[in-house]
Design a protein that fits this description.
The complex is a heterodimer of chains A (928) and B (177).
Chain A lengths: L1 E5 L2 E5 L5 H7 L23 E5 L8 E4 L10 E3 L3 H14 L17 H8 L23 E3 L9 H9 L6 E3 L6 E3 L14 H4 L5 E3 H4 L9 E2 L2 E2 L8 E7 L2 E7 L12 H5 L13 E3 L10 E3 L1 H11 L4 E4 L6 H11 L4 E2 L4 H15 L3 E2 L3 H4 L4 E5 L3 H4 L1 H10 L2 H9 L7 H8 L6 E5 L11 E4 L2 H15 L13 H13 L3 E6 L5 H20 L7 E6 L5 H9 L5 H9 L5 E5 L9 H8 L5 E5 L11 E4 L8 E4 L4 E5 L12 H5 L12 H11 L6 H12 L4 E2 L30 E2 L46 E2 L22 E5 L13 H6 L4 E5 H7 L6 E5 L4 E9 L6 E5 L14 E6 L6 H8 L3 H4 L5
Parallel strand pairs in A: 1-5, 16-17, 16-24, 18-23, 19-20, 19-22, 20-21, 22-23, 24-25, 25-26, 29-30, 32-36, 33-35
Antiparallel strand pairs in A: 1-2, 3-4, 3-5, 6-9, 7-8, 10-12, 11-12, 12-13, 14-15, 14-26, 27-28, 28-31, 33-36, 34-35, 34-37
Chain B lengths: L2 H8 L10 H11 L9 H12 L4 H11 L3 H10 L11 E6 L2 H5 L2 H12 L5 E2 L5 E6 L11 E3 L2 E3 L4 H14 L4
Parallel strand pairs in B: 1-3
Antiparallel strand pairs in B: 1-4, 2-3, 4-5
Helix pairs in contact in B: 2-3, 3-4, 4-5
Classes of the chains: A alpha/beta (928), B alpha+beta (177).
C-alpha cells in the first residue's frame, strides 16, 4: 500500500495502479473518457488532468494526466486546483465543439457519461459558433445504431472492439478533426460482443437498435437484478420493462463472472419475451379430440383443469431452462420417482460426470475472471465462442498474460495499455484449441489440432500419458506425436494451466479423457512441487440451469428415454412437461411414439413450439424476466434472479401452476418455500439456505424499489383502462417492490439493478459501489457454490468408446440460433443462418459437390437434405451439422451417411451471403 | 425479415482487383524489410497509388488480402494519411502551401489565380481530370515562399506569371485527350 495526498487529504492506495483509478476507488469525482477499468489507460482524451506537486514545498505543481501517472507512494496531487479545473473545462469544451445539441432526441440522454462529465467539468455554455464537423452514418446491422456526429474521439470503441474483443471490422478512419469510427464499408458488425459498444461508448454514437424500436428513458424503466438465460455461464443482467413489455437488457456487474461485458446473444435475445409466439393464455382440448383447436381458459379454469387432469399415475419431465423452483415444484407434484430429466440421456450422463469432477479435490473450476488469469489454456472440442461466449472473451484475455509478464519484467505498469501492447507485439500465452473445425479463437491460438471427437479423445489421452506415464495410453497412437509432446510441455510449463471443454459433443468419453488429462497434470504439478498443484478444469453448460437440473437428478428420478417409454406403453395417466420442447431433446420418432399413446399431456411453457402444439393443456409460463428464480451455472454457483415485472393475463411462474390445490395461484405461492425444502432434503442443495438468508435479512428492513426515483407517468399509464390509479402489484416475498418508494437502491449493491449515484447517471456509476475499481461489489452479489471439493480424489478413468460407425460427424453450434429462446428474438433471427452441413474440400471432391450444393444426410430412420458449406479448416473425412431449429439432432446421433443431391447453386443467394460470414475464422488474419 | 436486409448490409459491394506483377514485385521487396506483414501496409498503399494514381476500394481490398490484414484496419491507415488518395485525383496534383511564410508572402492571391484559371477550389479536380488542388501545411522552403509541389517538382517564389507559364507548359506536354 502507498499513501497519496489528494487536496490535502491522505489516502491509502495501491501503487500498482494509476492515479485516476485510485481516485475513483476512493470515491472521488474525477472526469475521464478514454480510460476503462478493463482496458487501461492510453491518455487520449486529456480529461482527467490533475495538479501534481513534487513535494510539500512545491506550491506551483505541474498539470498531469491522472490516468497516465502512477499512484506512487508520497504523491501529492490536487483535483480542485484552479489550473487543473480550468484545464479540464477547456478540454471538455474542445471535445464538445462538434457535438450536436441533440440530447432530447438522443437515446443516451439521461444515462450519458458525456453529459455527466460535461457537467462535472463545468462546461455549461458553448462559445463555439462556427460550422460543426458532421459525418454520414452507417447501417451496422440489426444490433447497433450509428450516430457519428456525437463522437468525441475517445477511441474506447476500437480499443474494446478490436483490442479487447478481437474484432476486425471496426476501425478508426481519418485523422485530426474528422476521425470516423466505423466500418470501411457499411455492413453488420460481426464481432460477438458488438453490443458492449453501447455501454463502452461514453456517448450516443453506438446505441442499441433493438431498444430504439421501443425506446424508454433509463429512469422510466422498471428493472430488477436478473440472470442471462442464454447459456450456462450465469452472467448477471439488468432487463428493463415499461408498459408490460421488456425493452432491453444491459450488463449488471458481477466481479467473478461477466464483469463489465455481455455477449450479443445475452444482450439482444430478450425480444423473445415480446414475441407473438408467446403462449398468452391457458389452452385446452380433451385428450380424445386431437386435431381440434384448443379452447382458451381463464387462469383459474386452467389451474382447475390441471388439477383435474393431474391425478392417478403422474409423470413429470423437468427442464434445464426452468428454474430450480419450478423443477422442484414439478418433482414434488409428481413424486421423486416419477420425475424425469428434461435433457437428453447423453447430455445428462455428461452433466452428472461433470458434477463429480466439480467435487474432486485437486481440481478447480475457474470462474470467468479466473480464466483470464490462466497462462496456458487447452480447449477441448468446445466451440466456446458459440456455446458460452463470455468465457471465450475471457480466454482471449488470457492470451495476453505473456504480455503482462513481459511488461512486469520491463517495469511497465500493466495499465499502460499502448506501451504493453507495443512491447508484446505478437507474444501471447499458449492457447491450444482441439476442434473439428476452425473456431473464432484461432486468431489468438498458439496451436490448433483439427480432428474428429474420436481423434481428439486419442490426442487428449496421449497428452495425459505423456505428462504422467501412469495415466493409461490410448489404444492407438496419435499420428502427430510431436504436437502431443509440445502440448504436454506447454501445459507442464504453465504456472496456472486451464482446461476448458463442454457438453456440446455429448460425449462421456471426451469428458473422461479430459478429466484424466487434468488429473495427470495435477500429479505432475504435485510431483514437481508446484505452489498450488490444483488444475483449472471447467465445462461450459449449454443452458441456464443444466447444472441445477443435473444436481436435482442426482437426488433420484429417471432418464428422458425411460419417461418416453412409460408414455409409449400408456402406463401413465397423465404427463406434465415443464418448459421443454422434447423434439430438441430426443428423436422425433421416439417423441411421436410416446405421444401416440394419447396420454393426457400438460405442458407449461412460454413460447409456442412443435411439441407443445400437441399438448392437451398448455399453460403460459413466465420468462426469466417475469419470475423470480434460482439458477445454477457451470461452476455449480446458484444465483437468484428477481422478477422484473408482473406479466399480464394468466402468465405465471411455472412453479405457481404446479403447487397443488391452489386454484387462485396468487402471490401466496412462493419459491422460497420450495428452495427451503430442497435445501433440507439434500446435502448438495444445503447452501441454498445461505442464499435465502442473505435475501430475507434485507427484506426485514425496507424494500428496495424496482423503479427509479424519477419514474414518470405512474398515475397516468393505465388511464386508458381506468381513470383511477391502479394499485401497485404486490411482491410480499422478495426484498424488492414494484414501486418508486422504499430503501434507496444505492444502499445495497447486491439488490441493485441499474447503477446510479449523484452526478453519475450512466452505467459507469458502478464504480461507486465497488470496494475498489473493477473489484468486488461492496455488499456482494456472488451467489453460493453448491458443491464443495469433498469428493474422492479420482483415479484415472478407463476411457471406453466404441469407434463411430460410418462417417465421423460433429454438431455445430451458433451463438445466434442454437439457443432456443433467444432464437425467437427478431434481431437474433436476422443474424441466424438456416441449418447446413459442413464438409472439407477432399470430401466435397469425392462426393462431387460444390459450395452451396445440396447434401442428403441419412441416419437409421431419418434423412434430411441440407445446403453444404465447404470449409478450409475442418477435420478430414467428417461432416459438421448445424441443426438450427429445423433439424432433429437426436435423430442424427447414430451412424450417418451422406450423398450429394444437387451439385451446386441450390442455396438461395441470400443464404449464401450469410454463409460467407460463417467461415470468418478460415480467413481471419493470424498474426505472429 | 431481413434476409434481404442482411445481404444489403453485409455482402461486400466491391471485389478485390488483381494486383499487377509490378505492384506485387515492389510490395514483396518491402516485405523483406519488415518482420511483420502488417507493417508494410503504408508502403504497399504508396506503391499502389504510384501505379494507379489513387487507392480504390478494389485496390484496398487487394492489398489487405495480400498482406493478410482486415480491410477495415488497412483503411484506417489509408485514411489517416492525407496524401493517400481514396478518391480519384487529377493527373497533376498541386500541393499548394498555405502555411505561415507563404501566407505572409501572399500565397492567397496566387491560389485565387489558380482557382480562377482552372475553376477549382481546394480539394477539387478539374473536369478534364488534369489538375487537383490541395493545400499542404509546409514544404520546407520558406525562404523561397510562396511554394507549390507538382509532379515531384518544387515551384518556388510563385507569381501569377509563373503559374501561367507552368500551366501552359503542362498543357503543351500533356495535351488533353
Amino acid at each position: 500500500m502507498a499513501k497519496i495526498s489528494v487536496d490535502g487529504i491522505e489516502y491509502e492506495v495501491n501503487p500498482a495502479n494509476n492515479l485516476l483509478q485510485e481516485c475513483l476507488s476512493q470515491g472521488l469525482d474525477l472526469p475521464y473518457f478514454c480510460w476503462h477499468p478493463c482496458m487501461g489507460s492510453v491518455g487520449a482524451c486529456r480529461q482527467c488532468a490533475v495538479k501534481q506537486y513534487r513535494n510539500a514545498e512545491d506550491k506551483t505543481g505541474t498539470v498531469v494526466m491522472a490516468c497516465m501517472t502512477p499512484a506512487s507512494d508520497g504523491s501529492i496531487i490536487s483535483i480542485n486546483d484552479k489550473q487543473a479545473t480550468d484545464f479540464r473545462s477547456h478540454v471538455i469544451e474542445s471535445l464538445m465543439i462538434s457535438h450536436p445539441h441533440d440530447c432530447p432526441v438522443c437515446e443516451e440522454g439521461g444515462e450519458c457519461h458525456l453529459q455527466d462529465m460535461t457537467q462535472m467539468s463545468g462546461h455549461n455554455y458553448r462559445r463555439y459558433d462556427f460550422k460543426k464537423v458532421t459525418h454520414r452514418n452507417q447501417d451496422l446491422g440489426p444490433f447497433i445504431n450509428h450516430e457519428m456526429n456525437r463522437c468525441i474521439a475517445c477511441y474506447r470503441c476500437v480499443r474494446f472492439y478490436d483490442d479487447y474483443a478481437g474484432g476486425t471490422d471496426l476501425a478508426a478512419l481519418g485523422s485530426h478533426h474528422h476521425v470516423y469510427f466505423g466500418r470501411h464499408e457499411e455492413g453488420t458488425l460481426e464481432n460477438e460482443f458488438s453490443g458492449n459498444l453501447v455501454e463502452v461508448c461514453p456517448t450516443g454514437v453506438f446505441t442499441d437498435k433493438t431498444f430504439s424500436a421501443h425506446y424508454t428513458r433509463k429512469w422510466d424503466l422498471q428493472t430488477a437484478p436478473s440472470i442471462c438465460s442464454g447459456c450456462g455461464a450465469g452472467c448477471n443482467t439488468t432487463p428493463g420493462e415499461r408498459y408490460g413489455t421488456l425493452r432491453r437488457i444491459v450488463n449488471r456487474y458481477h466481479h467473478d463472472l461477466n464483469g463489465y461485458f455481455l455477449c450479443d446473444r445475452g444482450r439482444f435475445g430478450y425480444d423473445a419475451n415480446n414475441s407473438r409466439d408467446r403462449v398468452g393464455e391457458a389452452l385446452y382440448r380433451h385428450a380424445h379430440t386431437d386435431g381440434e383447436p384448443r379452447k382458451a381458459l381463464s387462469a383459474i379454469e386452467g389451474a382447475r383443469q390441471l388439477d383435474a387432469m393431474a391425478s392417478g399415475e403422474l409423470i413429470g419431465i423437468g427442464s434445464p431452462r426452468a428454474s430450480l423452483e419450478s423443477n422442484m415444484a414439478l418433482r414434488q407434484r409428481v413424486g421423486p420417482q416419477n420425475f424425469f430429466s428434461g435433457m437428453g440421456d447423453a447430455q445428462l450422463s455428461c452433466a452428472t460426470e461433470v458434477i463429480s469432477l466439480l467435487q474432486e479435490p485437486g481440481l478447480n473450476c475457474p470462474d470467468i475472471r479466473s480464466l483470464e488469469l490462466s497462462d496456458c489454456v487447452l480447449v477441448v472440442n468446445e466451440d466456446i465462442t458459440n456455446t458460452s461466449a463470455r468465457m471465450a472473451l475471457a480466454l482471449r484475455q488470457a492470451t495476453r498474460n505473456a504480455a503482462s509478464a513481459m511488461a512486469q519484467d520491463a517495469r511497465i505498469p500493466l495499465w499502460q495499455d499502448a506501451a504493453v501492447r507495443e512491447l508484446a507485439q505478437h507474444s501471447r500465452s499458449p492457447l491450444i484449441i482441439l476442434s473439428p473445425q476452425g473456431t473464432r479463437l484461432d486468431d489468438v491460438a498458439s496451436d490448433t489440432f483439427l480432428g474428429t471427437v474420436e481423434q481428439q479423445i486419442v490426442f487428449v489421452q496421449s497428452v495425459a500419458h505423456a505428462i504422467d506415464a501412469n495415466c493409461p495410453a490410448p489404444n492407438c497412437a496419435p499420428e502427430n506425436g510431436a504436437q502431443v509432446t509440445s502440448v504436454a510441455n506447454a501445459l507442464c510449463a504453465a504456472k496456472r494451466p486451464s482446461i476448458v471443454s463442454g457438453l456440446s459433443a455429448e460425449s462421456l468419453a471426451l469428458i473422461k479423457a479430459t478429466a484424466n488429462l487434468a488429473r495427470a497434470l495435477r500429479e505432475y504439478r504435485h510431483r514437481h512441487g508446484a505452489a498450488n498443484p490444483s488444475v483449472d478444469l471447467c465445462f461450459a453448460m449449454p443452458e441456464v440451469n443444466t447444472m441445477g437440473l443435473a444436481l436435482l437428478m442426482k437426488e433420484g428420478g429417471g432418464s428422458l428415454s425411460s419417461a418416453l417409454s412409460i408414455l409409449r406403453t400408456g402406463k401413465a395417466d397423465a404427463a406434465i412437461v415443464l418448459e421443454n420442447d422434447l423434439y430438441r431433446r430426443a428423436s422425433a420418432e421416439a417423441v411421436d411414439a410416446a405421444l401416440a399413446s394419447k396420454t393426457p399431456l400438460i405442458v407449461i411453457d412460454h413460447l409456442h413450439n412443435a411439441f407443445n402444439a400437441k399438448a392437451h393443456l398448455l399453460l403460459p409460463a413466465a420468462t426469466m424476466a417475469e419470475q423470480g428464480g434460482t439458477w445454477v451455472n457451470y461452476e455449480a454457483r446458484a444465483q437468484h434472479s428477481y422478477q422484473v415485472f408482473q406479466p399480464e393475463g394468466s402468465t405465471r411462474a411455472a412453479y405457481e401452476w404446479l403447487v397443488p390445490n391452489n386454484p387462485v395461484r396468487g402471490p401466496s405461492v412462493h419459491g422460497d418455500a420450495l428452495l427451503q425444502e430442497l435445501a433440507g432434503e439434500s446435502r448438495s442443495f444445503a447452501p441454498l439456505l445461505e442464499l435465502l438468508s442473505s435475501r430475507s435479512g434485507i427484506a426485514a428492513l425496507m424494500k428496495s424499489p424496482r423503479q427509479s426515483h424519477r419514474f414518470s407517468g405512474r398515475t397516468a399509464m393505465h388511464a386508458n383502462v381506468h381513470v383511477h390509479e391502479t394499485k401497485q402489484a404486490q411482491d410480499p416475498h422478495s426484498p424488492l417492490s414494484f414501486s418508486m418508494e422504499g430503501l434507496l437502491l444505492q444502499k445495497d449493491a447486491s439488490l441493485m439493478s441499474a447503477a446510479w449515484a449523484p452526478a453519475w447517471n450512466s452505467n459507469q456509476a458502478i464504480s461507486k459501489f465497488q470496494e475498489e475499481i473493477n473489484g468486488e461489489l461492496k455488499q456482494g452479489n456472488k451467489g453460493v457454490h453448491l458443491l464443495a471439493r469433498d469428493g474422492e480424489r479420482g483415479s484415472y478413468n478407463k476411457v471406453e468408446h466404441a469407434p463411430e460407425q460410418g462417417l465421423a460427424k460433429y454438431f455445430i453450434e451458433h451463438l445466434f440460433g442454437s439457443e432456443e429462446i433467444s432464437a425467437a428474438s427478431p434481431a437474433i433471427q436476422a443474424r441466424a443462418v438456416p441449418a447446413y452441413a459442413c464438409i472439407g474440400k477432399g470430401l466435397a471432391q469425392s462426393l462431387g459437390v460444390h459450395q452451396h450444393g445440396l447434401l442428403r444426410l441419412c441416419a437409421d430412420r431419418y434423412s434430411v437434405e441440407l445446403p453444404v458449406l465447404i470449409r478450409d479448416r475442418i477435420a478430414d473425412q467428417c461432416v459438421g451439422i448445424y441443426c438450427g431449429g429445423e433439424v432433429n439432432r437426436a435423430s442424427l446421433c447414430g451412424s450417418v451417411s451422406i450423398e450429394a443431391v444437387a451439385k451446386d447453386a441450390n442455396v438461395l443467394a441470400s443464404a449464401r451471403a450469410m454463409f460467407s460470414h460463417l467461415v470468418i475464422s478460415d480467413t481471419l488474419p493470424r498474426e505472429g | 425479415m431481413t434476409i434481404s436486409t442482411i445481404i444489403a448490409s453485409s455482402a461486400p459491394r466491391v471485389q478485390a482487383r488483381t494486383l499487377s506483377p509490378q505492384e506485387t514485385h515492389e510490395i514483396d521487396h518491402e516485405l523483406t524489410l519488415y518482420p511483420d506483414r502488417r507493417a508494410v501496409g503504408l508502403e504497399a498503399l504508396k506503391i499502389v497509388q504510384k501505379h494507379q494514381g489513387w487507392v480504390s476500394d478494389e485496390s484496398l481490398l487487394a492489398v489487405a488480402q495480400y498482406l493478410g490484414m482486415s480491410a477495415h484496419e488497412l483503411d484506417g491507415v489509408a485514411t489517416f494519411f492525407n496524401l493517400i488518395f481514396r478518391q480519384p485525383v487529377g493527373r497533376n496534383v498541386m500541393l499548394f502551401c498555405d502555411s505561415v511564410s507563404c501566407y505572409i508572402m501572399g500565397c492567397e492571391r496566387i491560389k485565387d489565380h489558380i482557382s480562377a484559371r482552372l475553376g477549382i477550389d481546394y480539394g477539387e479536380t478539374t473536369a478534364d481530370g488534369q489538375y487537383t488542388l490541395l493545400p499542404v501545411p509546409c514544404l520546407g522552403d520558406c525562404d523561397r515562399a510562396p511554394v507549390m509541389l507538382m509532379a515531384g517538382e518544387q515551384h518556388r517564389n510563385l507569381t501569377k506569371e509563373k503559374i501561367d507559364a507552368l500551366l501552359t507548359s503542362v498543357q503543351q506536354e500533356q495535351p488533353n485527350k
